[in-house]
Specification:
The protein is an alpha+beta fold. The chain folds into five domains: about 30 residues, no CATH class; about 160 residues, no CATH class; about 30 residues; about 150 residues, no CATH class; about 110 residues, no CATH class. The protein contains 26 helices and eleven strands. The strands form four sheets. Strands 8-9-10-11 form a four-stranded antiparallel beta sheet. A three-stranded mixed beta sheet has the order 3-5-4. The protein starts with a strand and ends in a 12-residue tail after the last strand.
Length: about 650
């Protein structure tokens, strides 16, 4: 007998199959089961098929690479190279790409409606793939729109100044300006290249021979530097791999590394007196070798990066004790009630309003980056009024918060009451926008501060009853500072483009505590290992040299962190309340810290009582000047009259 299935629905009788036999329930279920039929061509609309097609559209950029790797990579590479030589092509490419995405989205939406209305459901399902393609193209364009606006602004400034290259400070300033733009304003800024006379002139100026020559030289320098860095990184890995320690790590299995990690973690938590049932989970992961490990409070888990360990990026005792310290502090904070945490968060933020905030603060966070601003300068009365608004309207338990329009309406009366605030900005609108973002910042920081927790069950928290409240309070204050610095993650000066790693996060109380604890634990284990090695007859001199160098490195880090934490505090005190005495103390520390610069890659700012001088890692010098009433910025330092503190 033969059964023929037509479009998955009709079972046709052939040979000895009779209609009576087809009435048999089992036979009907066997041959007419829809689960095995193609739903993409059945004349009916199926939501699952439409959703699958939409996902296909969303994944179309990845699919293109898989199907046509050489062609796709070639097109992307050529576009990237062209934009590197002439960055001004980037906004044009983004606008065209975005327009194509919007067109595809609109066209597919129209076709879905048209084909659904005419009963052509199979075609309507297929149209969802185009809808997905239009969506992903539009989203990708939107994500890059601020970058396009930045390139546009840089091109306009380059054209206006008739220069071939912008200074680091000019680029940094444009970056800060663009971060405050909405996507729509970024789009409008990019369009200026084609809709205004100045924009078209700026576009054409980018193709001047001296400008192109400068770009090519920059590109060459980047390639050469990247090549050198890659070779240096490779050489370091290769050199470490040949050492006794490198050979030992290469031979270790994942289980052996896990056992060593567990042993060190147990020792660390035993020293801290943390009960077994409260200790975090330990996971061995394989990630990019840039990170050694991390503690994740929400999961109450410590991760250790096996890849980085094998390549010699870190030593286990240091990293494990460092992360164990973060976990211990998180457990200590669990003993505080939510009410107490909220009170401390409010006190922290209100103090920032009254006594002076950080150089940069985050007002919005996304999966891609944190949006930051320099806090606006407010006078005494305005500070008091802003603090009152924050207490009554911004710091709210269990609230999703106010949106930007609501916050703007909330702070606008302050702009009218204190017109002198506007003088810091080019217009009232800009001043209002900045104050709104500062309100957003307080709302975000309040939410982050009050929700940072492991959320342990009450019976487990009770086992930490031996911890006194003052210890928990100090720990919570420390994590507020740490979180604040981590979100804003700027240099002391607040200028991202100037290089260096001298940050609020780096010298927050908890981070310094973790660094000191980790390095002291490391030294203890290295000294034990060194003593054991030296007891052996004919011991390996190379391994001895490696252990000694690791001990020296840990000792330098301890000195750097301890001194740097004090330096950072004094510097911030000086920013808010400058005095010759503080300047002298800061300078004394700066000289000592500068000696550690090759090890620590320190970004130093020096104060001589009259001027704040900043020297970047590249040797560029900047001075803090008042550019307009109440507004200070770092500008290039072009004189030689002031003594070179760095050389002292």
């Amino acid at each position: 007998m033969v059964l023929e299935i037509n479009n998955g629905y009709q079972v046709r009788q052939n040979y000895n199959i009779t209609p009576q036999k087809l009435k048999n329930k089992a036979a009907v279920q066997t041959f007419t089961s829809r689960r095995n039929f193609d739903k993409t061509n059945n004349g009916e609309f199926d939501a699952n098929v439409a959703a699958n097609n939409f996902c296909k559209g969303l994944l179309s950029p990845i699919t293109a690479i898989i199907k046509h790797p050489i062609a796709t990579i070639g097109v992307v590479g050529a576009t990237a190279l062209a934009c590197s030589v002439a960055p001004i092509l980037a906004p044009a490419t983004a606008i065209v790409f975005g327009a194509m995405g919007i067109y595809e989205f609109g066209k597919s939406s129209y076709n879905i409606v048209k084909h659904s209305a005419s009963g052509e459901y199979d075609k309507a399902e297929k149209d969802f793939e185009g809808l997905g393609q239009g969506t992903i193209n539009t989203v990708l364009t939107a994500l890059g729109m601020r970058q396009s606006a930045r390139v546009t602004k840089e091109a306009q400034l380059l054209s206006e100044t008739k220069a071939t290259k912008l200074s680091v400070e000019q680029i940094s300033k444009i970056k800060d300006e663009v971060k405050s733009l909405t996507l729509f304003k970024s789009f409008k800024e990019s369009l200026k290249l084609y809709t205004t006379k100045e924009g078209r002139q700026a576009f054409m100026y980018q193709f001047k021979k001296p400008v192109i020559k400068e770009r090519l030289q920059d590109l060459k320098n980047i390639i050469v530097k990247k090549k050198e860095q890659t070779k240096e990184s490779f050489d370091i890995k290769e050199e470490f791999a040949k050492t006794p320690e490198g050979i030992k790590r290469a031979k270790m299995t994942t289980e052996e590394i896990s056992q060593e990690v567990s042993k060190l973690a147990k020792e660390s938590f035993d020293q801290y007196g943390i009960p077994e049932e409260l200790r975090p989970k330990i996971e061995i992961v394989k990630k990019d070798a840039k990170t050694g490990g991390g503690y994740y409070a929400q999961k109450h888990t410590i991760e250790i990066n096996e890849t980085a360990y094998r390549e010699g990026a870190f030593d286990l005792p240091n990293t494990i004790k460092h992360e164990a310290t973060h976990a211990k502090e998180a457990l200590i904070r669990e003993t505080l009630t939510f009410t107490k945490k909220e009170q401390l968060t409010k006190e922290y933020l209100l103090n920032k309003i009254q006594t002076g905030d950080n150089n940069t603060v985050a007002y919005d966070t996304t999966i891609f980056e944190n949006a930051t601003i320099k806090p606006p300068k407010m006078f005494t009365g305005m500070k008091t009024d802003f603090a009152k608004l924050a207490q009554e309207n911004i710091y709210k338990i269990g609230s999703n918060g106010l949106d930007k329009k609501q916050l703007t309406k909330l702070v606008e009366p302050l702009i009218d009451k204190y017109p002198e605030f506007i003088s810091q900005y080019q217009s009232k609108e800009e001043a209002l926008d900045m104050l709104t973002k500062y309100a957003q910042s307080h709302q975000l920081r309040y939410k982050v501060g009050t929700t940072t927790a492991i959320n342990l069950p009450a019976d487990k928290v009770a086992k930490l009853g031996y911890i006194d409240e003052s210890t928990a309070i100090n720990s919570f204050k420390g994590i507020l500072e740490c979180l604040d610095g981590n979100m804003s993650y700027k240099t002391v000066s607040g200028n991202m483009g100037l290089g260096g790693d001298f940050t609020q996060y780096e010298f927050g109380a908890e981070e310094v505590l973790a660094q000191l604890s980790g390095n002291k634990f490391e030294i203890s284990h290295l000294e034990q290992e060194l003593a054991t090695l030296r007891k052996r007859p004919n011991f390996d001199a190379k391994q001895e040299a490696y252990l000694l160098s690791q001990i020296e490195s840990a000792q330098k880090t301890i000195k750097y962190k301890s001194m740097g934490q004090k330096y950072y505090k004094l510097f911030m005190d000086y920013k808010h309340n400058p005095s010759p005495e503080l300047a002298k103390e800061i300078n004394t520390l700066a000289v000592e810290l500068n000696k550690l610069q090759p090890h620590a890659r320190l970004h130093i700012e020096n104060i001589n009582g009259k001027e704040t001088i900043m020297v970047t890692l590249k040797g560029e010098r900047f001075v803090l000047k008042e550019v307009k009433p109440g507004v200070t910025e770092f500008i290039p330092y072009n004189t030689t009259s002031t003594a070179d503190i760095m050389a002292s």
